[in-house]
Structure formats: C-alpha cells, structure tokens
Design a protein that fits this description.
There is one protein chain. It is built from eight helices and no strands. Helix 2 packs antiparallel against helix 4, helix 4 runs parallel beside helix 7 and helix 7 runs antiparallel to helix 8. It starts with 22 loop residues before the first helix and ends with a helix. 28% of the residues are buried.
Length: 209
C-alpha cells in the first residue's frame, strides 16, 4: 500500500483537483485536455476576429459587443485551466479562482447587449428592453459581487444566473424567429449549439468524461 500526505497553506479559497493514474494515462489525458482547450480557444479567436472585421467593415456596434462576449468566454476556460494566473498573475491568490466566473458573468452582460442591439429591442419593444436593462444590471452587479463573496456563493451565483440568462436569451431569439426573422432562426440554432458546446466543455473540465 502507498500513502501520500499533502499539507498546503493557501492564501484563501482555492479549487484544487487531483488526478491519480498511471504515467501513460496521465500524459494521454493531459494531451487530450490540451487539444480540446486549443480547439475551443482557436475557434473562439476566429469568431472574435471575424466579429471585429464585420464591425469595422459594416460599422455595426453589435458585432463589436459580440467580439467582447467571445473574449469573455475565452478568458473563462483559460482561467479555469490555470494557464492565465500561472503565467500572468501567479501571486494574486484568491483572485485566481474568481476570474473564470467574473469573465462568464461579464460575458452574460455582453450577450444581453448584443441581442438587444441586433434586434433593436429598444426601438421595437419598451417592455422587453426594460427586461434587458435589468439583466445587464444584474450581470454587472453579479460580476462585482463575485470578487468579494465566498467561493461557494460565487459558483452558485454564476451557475444559476448563467442558466436563467441563457434561457431568457434563447427564448427571445425563438420569439423573433416565430415572427419570421431568418436571422433569429440562425441565431437560435447558433446559441443552442454554443450553449451545448460550453456545457460539454464544462463537463469535461469537471472530469465528467
């Protein structure tokens, strides 16, 4: 039998994962994880560059907002994989585990603003625009709270608000699609695929498969 004892002194709340396996399996798992993250980040960078190109070419502000959204969802998995704070801010302590959640909450703000601008919600529906304003205020407030509240509350806040916001935005896209908007149909399919991809990525990061 083999006993291993760890003793750690941490500056604050931290998320620590252990993987106990044979060397070959560990290397194979690390390579697979790096491949998945590389594909995810690579596609995200391509989407961000394309959105910036369209924003500049067509002078459409909503695509610049979309580029910011993509930047947030790129930062979130990079922070979760420890790559950012390992090389950019190795001594930031508790902030390391909060960055992915803050980035995802800010991404929710950008997503709400993007949908509102794309479908001209402010001009077409006053009541719906009020809901969008509330969602954006909540997203910004939640991002600020994520920097100060305890870690378990940060996780609960991020997951619960992210789920509610995703349902709200997809519902808005479906509603516009039912009104005959071809762009809304494509966007609904894109959002569902995107949310499915994020769900698979999160599940993989948490060791589900």
């Amino acid at each position: 039998e083999l006993y291993v004892v760890f003793r750690m002194t941490l500056p604050g709340s931290s998320l620590i994962s252990f993987d106990i396996s044979r060397v070959g399996e560990l290397l194979e798992g690390s390579a697979k994880d790096a491949l998945i993250r590389s594909i995810y980040v690579g596609l995200g960078v391509m989407m961000m560059c394309y959105a910036l190109f369209v924003s500049i070419l067509m002078r459409r502000k909503e695509y610049f907002v979309y580029a910011l959204y993509v930047a947030c969802i790129i930062i979130a998995p990079l922070g979760d994989s420890e790559l950012l704070h390992r090389y950019l801010w190795p001594s930031s302590g508790d902030l390391n585990v909060r960055v992915p959640f803050v980035a995802s909450l800010l991404g929710g703000f950008c997503a709400s603003l993007f949908i509102a601008q794309l479908f001209e919600i402010k001009k077409n529906s006053v009541r719906l625009w009020r809901l969008f304003k509330v969602s954006m205020v909540i997203a910004l407030s939640a991002a600020c709270l994520a920097l100060v509240i305890d870690y378990k509350s940060v996780v609960l806040l991020s997951m619960s608000w992210g789920s509610l916001l995703a349902l709200f935005l997809v519902s808005v896209c479906f509603e516009r699609a039912l009104r005959g908007s071809r762009l809304a149909r494509l966007l609904s399919l894109g959002w569902l695929s995107h949310l499915l991809g994020i769900g698979v990525f999160v599940a993989h990061s948490r060791g589900v498969f």
